[in-house]
Structures are given as structure tokens and as C-alpha cells.
Amino acid sequence: MWTITYETVYQHQDKVDDVKIGMTSLAILCDKHTIPICSATTVGFAALMSWAGYLNEQGIACYVFMALSAFVELLVTDIDKPRQCIQFFLHTPTVGNLILAGLVVDAVAHRVVEGIPL
């Protein structure tokens, strides 16, 4: 689901040229509804990641970092500005890094609370 989000935003950088040559894409299909649609796929991504965290008995830190990772970039990107679409795409590794940070912080917090040596 996250792939749909970042790829759709990325496609907006050249949607004008795509229309000129008759190419179709999710960016063209979604058009002005891109942010709500990408928000929905982001919510789906966050829900699936949260479910995985729940099944793995993750703590609150994991969920906080997941929420941050999912929405921060999407909320500040203007899909009508190609440079911002490219930046959004290039910052997608940050999503994975924030999720990893949440897992690490959660694991460390769990070990500290349980008295398990790091």
C-alpha cells in the first residue's frame, strides 16, 4: 500500500507530459483526488503495520513512529509542484527508517522495563 502512495505522488511530476502523449497513470486517474486516495492507502499501510505490531506485542513507541512515518511527508507535499513530488519519492526511505527506529526504541524500552541487559 505504501508503494501505491509514493509511486502515485511521484507520477505527478510528469503528469502534464503523460497526458500530452496519451499515457495513463494513477496520477492522471486520481488527479485532484490524489491526496485523499493516497491518505487512504497510507491509513491502510499504517493499519496493516499496526496489526503486525499488535500480533508481535509491540509497545507504544512502535506505533508512534509508524504514525509519524506514514503521514508526515504526505501532508506537506504539493502534488502540483514537480520538485516536491520528486522530494517525496526520494524521502521514502525515511518511512522505513522511522519504522525501524520505532522497533528499536520499542525493543530497548522493553528490555529496560524487563531488566534484560542490552
Automatic annotation (TrEMBL):
GO biological process: ubiquinone biosynthetic process
Transmembrane residue ranges: 58-76, 88-109
Cellular location(s): Membrane
Source organism, top-level taxon: Eukaryota
Residue ranges that the Swiss-Prot or TrEMBL entry lists as coiled coil: none
Cellular component GO terms held in the UniProt record: mitochondrial inner membrane
Alphabetical UniProt keywords: Membrane, Transferase, Transmembrane, Transmembrane helix
Gene Ontology MF annotations: transferase activity, transferring alkyl or aryl (other than methyl) groups
UniProt membrane topology term: Multi-pass membrane protein
Required co-factors: Mg(2+)
Similarity section: Belongs to the UbiA prenyltransferase family.
PANTHER family listed in its UniProt record: 4-HYDROXYBENZOATE POLYPRENYLTRANSFERASE, MITOCHONDRIAL (PTHR11048:SF28), PRENYLTRANSFERASES (PTHR11048)
Protein's recorded name: Uncharacterized protein
